[in-house]
Write a structure and sequence with these properties.
CATH superfamily: Gcn5-related N-acetyltransferase (GNAT)
Order of helices and strands: EHHEEEHEHEE
Number of domains: 1
Number of strands: 7
Bound molecules: coenzyme A
CATH class: Alpha Beta
Number of helices: 4
Structural class: alpha+beta
Helix content: 25-40%
Strand content: 35-45%
Mean pLDDT: 96
CATH topology: Aminopeptidase
CATH architecture: 3-Layer(aba) Sandwich
Radius of gyration: 15 Å
Largest sheet: 7 strands, mixed
Length: 146
């Protein structure tokens, strides 16, 4: 089941986000984001447990995917795609036409997810993401017209 998120989801979102990223977002950070104007989020729930979410920020007809994450024990089960498709349908009905995001060049699962959903590469930011040690990863900019 996919449903609009509420402030009470912040804890689950923070847990899921921390599984996927070097620097996770705290409950407070997620709570603050959820309260921002233009920010929308959807939660994926299975067996009473939130196991995926997507967080987006819209301004007029444009929308940025701030993050998307699924539970590490339920990857590659279609949850990410379901959340992305759900968000696209909801945004389209709100007259959003341009969806964009940044993803690390070494994030193969996310690049695959976005390519499968029809996103195209529109640019690159060199050395945008910190990595352990002295190396950094480029950010790939992607967009999709809804
Ligand atoms: C990226 C992420 C959200 C994908 O979620 P998911 O529920 O596993 O994705 P899905 O099962 O819907 O997979 C959709 C497609 O993505 C691609 N994909 C997903 N995982 C992949 C992997 N490990 N390797 C290669 N491609 C992968 C495939 O094309 C897949 O379609 P297929 O299974 O039919 O081949 C998940 O891996 C995640 O939470 N990662 C950590 C957080 C993150 O990096 N978020 C993105 C920030 S930009």
């Amino acid at each position: 089941m996919i449903r609009p998120a509420t402030a009470t989801d912040a804890e689950a979102f923070s847990r899921l986000h921390s599984q996927g990223f070097l620097r996770g977002w705290s409950v407070e950070e997620i709570t603050a984001l959820l309260a921002e104007e233009g920010v929308v989020a959807f939660a994926h729930e299975q067996d009473g447990e939130v196991d995926g979410f997507i967080l987006l920020r819209s301004v007029f007809d444009e929308c940025e995917i701030l993050t998307i994450a699924t539970d590490e024990t339920r990857k590659r089960q279609g949850i990410g795609s379901a959340l992305l498709n759900h968000a696209c349908t909801a945004l389209k009905s709100c007259d959003v036409t341009n969806l964009f995001l940044e993803v690390a060049e070494d994030n193969t699962p996310a690049l695959g997810l976005y390519e499968k959903a029809g996103f195209a590469v529109s640019g690159r930011r060199r050395g945008y993401y910190p990595r352990l040690g002295r190396t950094r990863a480029d950010a790939i900019l992607m967009h999709k017209t809804l």
